[in-house]
């Protein structure tokens, strides 16, 4: 298989797999503890306002709805997972992906918390690292745990992909 195709296919499979693990985690949290899952429609709403020159909101829930915001948000969620998987592969190589190890996945998973803390949460009106939420410490810990789960999902998906693409 061509190296570029191999890279792209692995990034796609690992990113989708890791994001599925993350989504399964949010289902468990909701069912076991009543913790609400992220509303990807609000992320889609934010994306829908970007072409109109609106990058930051006091509170995204109060912003005007955007047509197709829910599927747009879900696509962004999975595209982000794929992009992070591509970053993992770029940093570690496709040779690593043939025999993946856990540590690079967990490190990247935890590093990915930078995006919501310093980009998405401020843009959606929650402040830097959830500083404008009712319980910032709880929100930060939940973000760290979620991104650690994403890192573990990267590892599981990399293992599965290594088996599939032998």
UniProtKB/TrEMBL annotation:
Keywords annotated in UniProt: Membrane, Transmembrane, Transmembrane helix
InterPro entries recorded: DUF2938
Record bears the keyword Endoplasmic reticulum: no
Pfam families according to UniProt: DUF2938 (PF11158)
Taxonomy, superkingdom: Bacteria
Membrane-spanning intervals of the chain: 7-28, 71-90, 102-124, 144-165
Protein's UniProt keywords contain Transcription: no
Name of the protein in question: DUF2938 domain-containing protein
